[in-house]
Amino acid sequence: MEDGEMQNDNSLTAVLLRAYLWLVPIGMLLAAIAFGAVAAVDGRWGLFGVMVVIGVVGVGLGVAHWWVLYRFGKGAS
Predict the structure, then answer these.
(1) Whole-Å CA distances, 65 to 22, 25, 39, 47
(2) Statement: the pTM of the whole predicted model exceeds 0.85
(3) Helix, strand, coil percentages in the chain from 3-state DSSP, rounded to 5
(4) pLDDT tens digit string along 22-71?
């Protein structure tokens, strides 16, 4: 592949990969928020703590995926 070819890659595989890299961390964070809220209302503080950890992992994964997309995607020169 030539330099710059990756920037204009709109193939189905590239679109699915970008969607996966964005939707997985967002889904993890939303699920952690939802289940954490249910656990807090129910008074299950251990489960709430686990949901906080999963939420933090989701945010970290989102940052890592953003970096990968920026470094190797449209932000690459």
Answers:
(1) 7, 8, 28, 26
(2) no
(3) 80, 0, 20
(4) 899 999 999 999 999 999 999 999 999 999 999 999 999 999 988 988 88
DSSP state of 73: S
Encoding tokens for residue 11?
């193939």
Residue 70 has what DSSP assignment? H
Q: Which amino acid is at 17?
A: L
Instruction: Dig out the tokens for 46 from the structure.
Output: 């251990």
b (16+ CB within 10 A) / e for 27-61: ebbeebeebbeebeeeeeeeebeebeebbeebeeb
Query: What type of residue sits at position 72?
Result: F
d(CA 77, CA 72): 9
Give the Å distances, CA to CA, from 61 to 5, 7, 77: 26, 22, 24
